[in-house]
Amino acid sequence: MKMNGAQMVCEAIIAEGVKTVFGYPGGAIMNVYDEIYKQDGFEHILNRHEQASVHAADGYARATGEVGVAMVTSGPGFTNAVTGLATAYMDSIPLVVISGQVPLSLIGTDGFQEIDAVGISRPCTKHNYLVRELSELPRIMKEAFHIARTGRPGPVLVDIPKDITAEFGDFVYPKEVNIPSFKPTYKGNNRQIEKAVDAILKAKKPLLYIGGGVVLSDASDLVRKLAEMGQIPAVETLMARGVMGYKNPLLQGMLGMHGNYSSNMAMSETDLVISLGARFDDRVTGKLSEFAKYADIIHIDIDPANIGKLVDVDYPIVGDVKLVLEKMILGLEGKIKPSRYSDWLEVLERYDNLHPQSYVDSDEVIKPQWAIERLGELLGEKAIITSDVGQHQMWAAQHYPFDRPRQWINSGGLGTMGFGFPAALGAKKAFPNKTVVNITGDGSILMNVQELVTASEYKIPVINVILNNHFLGMVRQWQTFFYEERYSETDLSFQPNFKALAEACHGIGYDVTTKAEFDEAIKDAIEKDKVAFINVQVARFENVLPMVPASGALYNMMLPTKEEK
Amino acid sequence: MSNRNVRRVVSILVENESSVLSRISGLFAGRGYNIETLTVAPVPNSNLSHITIATKGSERVLEQITKQLHKLVPVYKVVEHEEMVEKEMVLVKFPIEESLADIQALCLAYNGGIVNVGINMFIGMVADEPCRVRHFIEAIQRYSPIEIVRGGVVAIER
Predict the structure, then answer these.
(1) Is A513 exposed, middle or buried (0-12, 13-18, 19+ CB in 10 A)?
(2) Which of A122, A127, A132 is closest, CB to CB, to B26?
(3) What is the C-alpha separation between A514 and A267, in angstroms, rounded?
(4) How far apart are CA A237 and CA A255, in angstroms?
(5) Where is the domain boundary, B82, B102, B126?
(6) Among A273, A310, B85, B141, which has the highest number of CB atoms less than 10 A from its own CB?
(7) Which residues of B touch A316 (CB under 8 A)?
(8) Chain A neighbours among B 50-69 (CB < 8 Å)?
């Protein structure tokens, strides 16, 4: 069929089964937007900033497991999208981002809105393309989706010059992809798996170290099964919250810089780390030489480059964690004695009793931890929770009762403030019947606040709970601990009227200073079905604890003092 | 794993496309890997190119270099070997006043010769193992070389 390049882009998006595209038009991408106007195969959501478009596509991808799609123009449109690409890249989220580019004849001439998109995005995409000929376009679109979702997922950029989207040619969308140099390993090596099974059978204090890869590979059920059949305790990274479910007694909690006491002690004392789709990030390990010092390490990862990158591994297994776990469970069935590790579980229980995850509640002021726990009581398993970055993010990860994977959506690797609100829009588009709440702070929310307009226009009623401490809280916390309370540029006391701001953008706002008001606001916001800002005044100087100071050993935690408990 | 830095030649077979060299050099720069020399040329009768990089790093870094290179979509094959046959070429320009015979003898000893002679200068060329090329460059210092251009290492698996 003859059509122009712009229509080919749309046809490819439809052929991939994409229902929602987030984007923002501009000069170099106009041909494609002209075709978007004519088609009805997918819906386009006009965000009010390109960064938000990519985060929204990202939130959509994290909530569903499908490839998220965003579209931007050349130059500033693309550079605004870079933070979104980098965010998705660090957390291995499958995206296809399509950017317009100046016509081929203008490339390299510093043309209007020209920037080297492929050059800029190389270190923050899994792969990227500059389309140089129309005949390549169908294949490149097919490859982009394939690469984004295959192996370790990640974002792919397709940069398309304007003359190519205008040119007419034959369109046949390829059915299959053949990239000889791109063949990720899915099945783990059987001998390595057998060795790992033996190691588990011999271990006295094994520990499941669960990372975001388990969520990406939809392997949570298998992880729960493995934990339960062997009665093996587990710790989750920030990206894996929800995998085990908060009710599971084998789950110690989150480990790392703001991990709870028993999780970090479990990692410090285990004799066998079973790493499932985790990558030994510095926020997890603390001081590397003290990390899991007494343990052998089984490392299962689909990306071989993660294995042995930071720690020496005794049992490397390259493969999809789901397929590897299936085999592992078969190997362990009937052989593993669930009572074998009961002493170890008892030790961990004592650690948890010694320093449980706790805070001192107050009747005078709302404690941020209380707000999260209360939110959990009110919404629980039904809601999807997104977050921005900072103290509120850590409190949410520590205190919200996550019950399933993909319930918790946050920017872990890059730590992008401004991620939560647009990501919530993406998640809500994917699951319109679920309540979607962005837990945010008074700093982060302003970094994509323009999305109030998007949410109102498209009636995407997400609830933003702003834990407002009039500080850039996490940085303030570090200044308290490590910079002798010199609060350099972290006092955010000068604020907008958040309630009025939401209402100015056709949403609804609430000012909350008491627990009763908090409950009322949440209930009302759910009923009103409008985008909401719930501005919650919380204790100003509350710290996120426990805390392992950067590059300290995991077992050296700053714990709440008596007053803070 | 040992933290001692070792020199290694990495030989990479890639799809011959416009941005592939920047993907590879960018990977080295972005992740803080060292490039001592880099050569690139198309493989005859194919759509592939051969890139040879001489690098230095600890065992862990060298392993990461290989793995990270493998992850790049246009990369077909990465060979990182201790047993490589390596050669490097160098061109040296001398003033015409220097002893042509001496320099020619030196070049011959290092698999080369005089390749060009002009009114005020002549050019010697050698092609040899990288360490021998280094010796050659030391040896010719007394003949006041005007310009030295090294070609970078090319290597092939034994």
Answers:
(1) middle
(2) A122
(3) 39
(4) 6
(5) B82
(6) A273
(7) none
(8) 60, 63-64, 67-68
pLDDT in tens, A324-353: 999 999 999 999 998 999 999 999 999 999
Domain A190-354: state its class: alpha beta
- The mean pLDDT value for B5-10 works out to 92
Cis peptide before A546 (omega within 30 of 0): yes
What is the total count of domains within chain B? Answer: 2
CB contact under 8 A, B22 and A119: yes
Domain end call among B50, B82, B114: B82
ipTM of the complex: 0.90
> CA of A127 to nearest chain B CA: how many angstroms apart?
7
Enumerate residues 308 to 367 of chain A having a beta carbon within 8 A of any beta carbon in chain B. 308-309, 312
Task: Give the tens place of pLDDT for each residue, A358-371.
Answer: 999 999 999 999 99
Between chains, do A305 and B74 touch, taking CB under 8 Å as contact? no
Phi-psi region of A358 (alpha: psi -120 to 50; beta: other; left: phi over 0): beta
Report the catalytic residues of A. 50, 112-113, 162, 474
Q: Which CATH number fits domain A2-170: 3.40.630.30, 3.40.50.970, 3.40.50.150, 1.10.540.10?
A: 3.40.50.970
* Averaged pLDDT for residues A516-545: 97
Q: How far apart are CA B149 and CA B152, in angstroms?
A: 9
- One domain for residues B74 and B123: no
Q: Is the pLDDT of residue A564 over 80?
A: no
pTM: 0.96
